[in-house]
């Protein structure tokens, strides 16, 4: 991670490239981007952002704001549409203050999830926050789009616990919940990053967790009955005790039996309680998985954060403070929502297509719904994927060579196309935080039209898209804050 001591970096500065790519987790967007930013700003103070907005408007340049830099299509640090842009990188605005008495936290917009989890654990053993698994994801983008994590069945999404925010609007004003009003406050909690202004801080309600939680990661290959287990999982995933979240990940591996490529399902699981209680829930609801005590580990909530991020639980929690992405690969992701269990035949058809592209990492992750996630109205926040969903699918392909981009994109698009009859339709829903430009792009990133944007907009936001457009029209009618998938105002 380069040291950041200045506020502005031009392409002539020797650390420009390293700063540009320092939070880049996905090598694909930058490798195909037609244009580099004119300037990277790393503000130390809110007034630097206000000045940036003022100058960018005057010069007719776009602003891309970056928090953790994990956007799947790189929209916080590239401009696929070739429009000149500056990056406002919030890494220096990342302080977090926790108030254990009121169980609340103020988090600056450039903080990462790892920094947030670390800070909470420093103050309390029984407070936590429900958000994503990867510690280097930024709160700026993540909270702007939803925020699903291992406690989402118990508590819902990150956005369900935001109680205040500070935003710098198109006129450079700093607004809090009261001064921005309830419409804008609603829109920024799930309407997607980069549309309504620059979030400089979020206030969240922290959540109570027991001192001991239990985790397990049980792996079964196709030879070990993975298909039958996933079939059954679909019938219990959203109904099981909300203290338990079982999130299967299906990936390609070499079979231990014959060395050929096969698939394995890893049942990543968190239970908010001790192992004995977990075993009794599992025996009642999912005995087919044959979970035993030896498969499980009791630990603190913060250790479970390390566990799901792939660290040894003996590792110092300080690893959560690193902003360096855990791995850098070429990557493409997509999402879907499942409302009816997929049949055995359907699952086998998926496996067939996954095995067609077995080199590189391919993955399907099934994130269960139900519990608190499904109790919250689909209109409460812009994130509309609530009751009626059994699980969300995350598709991913990751590879190491730029020469394979077209091949991998073709493969993942083919799998997505095969899945159409098994997932939500009219609209085919998608999760905005798993951003996917295949769903549609605003007029090459120039001022988008409502008609074009509604194609991808209704997939991400369903009926909430319309309200988002109304709010955008109110707060940013000239469409200053925009990107390839930002919400358009009506006039454009
Ligand atoms: P980044 O900085 O790239 O911003 C994303 C978008 O938000 C951009 O359009 C950007 O301009 C805008 N933005 C950023 N900061 C802003 C601010 N302060 N104000 C206004 N707009 C802002 N999701 C999930 O729900 N659960 C999970 O477990 C994971 N896990 C995960 C792992 C990995 C490795 C990756 C790469 C991604 C995830 N995600 C995820 C998806 C993640 O939630 C999504 O990519 C977020 O948008 C990333 O937020 P960042 O701030 O890191 O991205």
TrEMBL record:
Domain FAD-binding PCMH-type stretches: 32-209
Keywords, comma-separated and alphabetical: Alkaloid metabolism, FAD, Flavoprotein, Glycoprotein, Signal
InterPro entries documented for this protein: BBE (IPR012951), FAD-bd_PCMH (IPR016166), FAD-bd_PCMH-like_sf (IPR036318), FAD-bd_PCMH_sub1 (IPR016167), FAD-bd_PCMH_sub2 (IPR016169), Oxid_FAD_bind_N (IPR006094)
Database matches in Gene3D superfamilies: 3.30.465.10, 3.40.462.20, Uridine Diphospho-n-acetylenolpyruvylglucosamine Reductase, domain 2
Pathway: Alkaloid biosynthesis
Reported cofactor(s): FAD
Pfam families, sorted: BBE (PF08031), FAD_binding_4 (PF01565)
Family in the record: Belongs to the oxygen-dependent FAD-linked oxidoreductase family.
Protein's UniProt name: FAD-binding PCMH-type domain-containing protein
Organism, as annotated: Cinchona calisaya
Phylogenetic placement of the source organism: Eukaryota, Viridiplantae, Streptophyta, Embryophyta, Tracheophyta
